[in-house]
Amino acid sequence: MCSLQSKCLRSTSLFCFNPTGAGGWSPSDSDHYQWLQVDFGNRKQISAIATQGRYSSSDWVTQYRMLYSDTGRNWKPYHQDGNIWAFPGNTNSDSVVRHDLQHPVIARYVRIVPLDWNGEGQIGLRIEVYGCSYWADVINFDGHVVLPYRFRNKKMKTLKDVISLKFKTSESEGVIFHGEGQQGDYITLELKKAKLVLNLNLGSNQLGSIYGHTSVMTGSLLDDHHWHSIIIERHGRNINLTLDRHIQHFRTNGEFDYLDLDYEITFGGMPFSGKPSSNSRKNFKGCMESINYNGNNITDLAKRKKLEPSNVGNLSFSCVEPHTVPVFFNDTSYLEVPGRPSQDLFSVSFLFRTWNPNGLLVFSNFADGLGNVEIDINEGKVSVHINVTQIKKNRIDISSGSGLNDGQWHEVRFLAKENFAVLTIDGDEASAVRTNSPLQVKTGEKYFYGGKKISEQNLLIHSFQGCMQFIHVDDQLVDLQAVEQGKLGSFANVTIDMCAIIDRCVPNHCEHGGKCTQTWDIFKCTCDGTGYSGATCHNSIYELSCEAYKHLGKTSNYYWIDPDGSGALGPLKVYCNMTEDKVWTTVYHDLQPQTSVGGNSLEKLSVLQLNYSATMDQISAITSSAEYCEQFISYSCKMSRLLNTPEGNPYTWWVGKANEKHYYWGGSGPGIQKCACGIERNCTDPKYYCNCDADYKQWRKDTGMLSYKEHLPVSQVVVGDIDRPGSEAKISVGPVRCQGDRNYWNAASFITSSSYLHFSTFQGETSADISFYFKTSASDGVFLENLGNTDFIKLELKSAAEVSFSFDVGNGPVEIVVRSPNQLNDDQWHRVNAERNVKQASLQVDQLPLEVRKAPTEGHTRLELYSQLYVGGQRGFLGCIRSLRMNGVTLDLEERAKVTPGVKPGCSGHCTSYGMYCANGGKCVEKYNGYSCDCSKTAYDGPFCIKDVGAFFEEGMWLRYNFHSPGTSMKDLVSRTLLSSTDPETTATDLNLNKEELSFSFSTTKSPCVLLYISSYTQDFMAVLVKPSGNLQIRYSLGGTKEPYNIDIDHRNMANGQPHTVNITRNERDIVLQVKIGKIDQDIYKYNTPGFTGCLSRVQFNQIAPLKAALRPTNASSHVHIQGELVESNCGASPLTIPPMSAATDPWHLDSGKVESVGILLSSVIFSFFLCSGVIAVVIFTILCTLVFLIRYMFRHKGTYHTNEAKGAESAESADAAIMNNDPNFTETIDESKKEWLI
After folding, report:
1. I need a surface site. Which of 118, 400, 522, 1197 has the fewest CB within 10 A?
2. 54-78: per-residue pLDDT in tens?
3. Paired strand residues for 864
4. How distant, in Å, are the alpha carbons of 367, 551, 565 from that of 394?
5. What's the Rg (C-alpha) of the chain?
6. Burial profile 1009-1025: b = 16 or more Cβ within 10 angstroms, e = fewer
7. From start to end of 869-913, where are the E strands?
8. Which 8-state DSSP code applies to residue 659?
9. 1147, 1051 contact by CB (below 8 A)
10. How far apart are CA 744 and CA 384, in angstroms?
11. Is the overall model pTM greater than 0.85, yes or no?
């Protein structure tokens, strides 16, 4: 604690001081140019500051800034949370408000600048500063001298290094220290464009296969002549680089761990005996203190003259301060300085730095109304506009430079005289821009910098925001301290002797490689090509797993996934196999199958490296969240032993995750040095536990699956027994395949309102994202919350239709609410995504619009939490929460729920939300972790019952499905007892037909043919035919009629190679049918020669799928009889072989889903027929098919026939279609014409 005496204090104007503590400082004028300054006599480490108002008055400060300095000049504002910090002050004159600094500062001088004060009084202040003494040895480097530290031994070989120092400089370039070895190792720390660059190489080889050079850049604006602290900690290839409390972790390139340096390490520059390529690097110019190299105090050794500096330059032990006086401009500032009027030479020069692409730099009027000069920064270029009033061409424009809004110091020199002007940027005379346009110059009296005062209230728009120094007018350096004291010129809202520029991109808040750009007040992240989105590129644009893609309705394919979401791991491309109930995720590598090793090899070991399409960390993220993983491995051998005996040293092993060696093989497990045959006891030679260990001269093989996922993936296979004559081996390693996603279905059910789960404190200081699913029937409840002293974060269901995201980072509570048009307590799954970062906060529920709240440009940005994280909330939630992820980490709700009263692991009722994905009649089945689709009663396959099951039929081949089981007598079949049988294939469901549905898809290029034939115990039948003309015909015969009914659908040729889908529906009232295999009607045989050639798929009769029963072995397979060889085909989804018709000319094209229905009344039966021409043509195959079905007895009943087709089909040249559209007596026509001529 410092006791402040009056002699230590200085201010802009009078202050009152009383030794007893009464009174305080109160300036004569209360405006924004007042300050109170404290001089501690020497440098102190300051940790806190406290303020009071003036004693017994209405005078107190409500907000202030703190500046600090070593010299009483070149002030630096205190920064916190990436901003120039404004401290909250007092609310009355008596109470003390203390602020502990987020990070201590070291300075001799402290200046308090009031920003706001009590409106009913004036500025009044009493202060107390807390801290402790500080002392350090300082070395001044003049830009020439170099300080070497020579090793006791000529060589220094280190596994660990710790190098620390502090520096300050006003130069943007310079080598801080450098060391190198003759083997090529080196370490260099230097400034480049006022940023810190560490170059390190622990070793490379001459062949170039090992490249050890590593370069890391950090920091910005380090040429501000303020102290900056550096700590470099190295252990092998792992580096921690700390600059001003900001730590950067990285790992060096190459494979070596030791740093080999020769002779010395030099501070302040490169050694003069260095390599020629290093001569271009500038030496460091500035001050260093507390230099420590691996425990050696370099500054102390130098001060005690134990080190010998180079002969060039001067090394001193006090810091030399520069004589520059910077001036800081905001967007309402201007600086007016006088010039020498009526001169015929106009000359200005200055240095500036800014982040803004536009702004006014200098403005001055010529004398005698000759015009004016305006110098701007315009889109990163410096532009000069000379307005001349005496000539017709009244404006001269020149510009130079580019990208000058990069925050670096840039020098501008502009000179104009009669008929000549020149603009030079950064002293580059070669690129200076000149003009010889007609020009008359006579300088004016005033020069405005940063803005122009038009009147007492107004300034020019596009004022400059940034810093300037070395301002020259008419070749004279402007005395800015005289300006500050009011002795020269005038100014408004500028700060002299301070440059308060901030690099908002350091540290970079743009995550995952996002590019940061900035203006003076804000920064922006460009996320293009990163795989992430959002204000700070925090959110992955990809799903977390293949499981997530499946539940978006995706099919098997390659997809990008991001296993840790917003975490550090990047996205990777995998193959998602969704053909099974469980989803398989596959990651491939580059090792070819059956890779040969050995064969007269002179090497005792052969190492096969597997390079995957993902990093080991990415694959580990997949295996960790998977339910099961496997990787196939195979060893084919000829006189090449594999594992030896369980007690012996193995000849071959594989390397898995974490670079661990494993001595078991596929089909075995960890700790068991055996192959699969050794476990199953069926090896070729029973004395061994691997086939290859028998050492036969014939080829043998040991194969199997590696399924201990904690060891996967295989990264190397090392083969040992290949150096004997005749020894050969072949290695195959399959891709890594993982099944399921435990994180996606990780859920907990909260069954009491007082129950909750607790986890460790959420770490989301500057960036936080939270996502989860919930379902509930309650109208409100807290999903989760985490508290700090005053900070907090909370997500809750506020009402049945509102979700709230609220938090406080120190600027006051913020709440974002999403209101849903539908109730959210509908016991359906709903997804919540919440995010907070330094730029904004957002909340989204399901697919509702994203609600966004911008963060304040100044204020606190760090979320500081201390309590445990409560899931379910201390105020209670009733329902389920699933897949809770916070900053890319999934919380294991199920595991915690197992030991928490009132909470159960898992959650039922997934089918209520996801049952809609089970298509084509598939049934949703509840599971502990999710759901599955039961496709057994459909003609489809796959996880969502959307995969067609089809087959090729060749000539002479047919398939028959018997409704009754083999061996069932007809007497039993027709008995009532049989109808109640427990046999699922012969129950009343199959035989008692209240509703019949028949559907299938076909494609063919041959006609005529029979597609389907269904017969009954009587002579009734139904057949679907393709006539010789290619038209489709439905033919059926019912009891009591002599001739069958024929319905022709001849709008187009169906034998065109494209797939067509047919659906036939019959409704009947309270009917029980007795069915058997009947004989095929003789008239149908005419269409069965030479037979059906084509493709059939997704054939279904009610709940019977004959093709699927034949191709997918089930209990129903015993009902199937096949003539010939049945070959499965995806003919329902083949690529086009002929171009489809355009929508304009296709009479079958569905226009916006509008369908016309045409009805025909028939006696005895109701049929509804739907025909759709597919746009996907199939490869033409030659097949023959006769499908024999048993159909129930059909009673006579009034029926209707429908054909659904697009508008425009009305003009088709179909006789039947014309009759159906126009002839109301079409029923009688069918009855009178029961025979048809077949062409």
Report:
1. 522
2. 998 999 999 999 999 999 999 999 9
3. none
4. 16, 69, 60
5. 43
6. bbbbbbbbbbebbbbbb
7. 869-871, 879-886, 889-890, 903-905
8. G
9. yes
10. 61
11. no
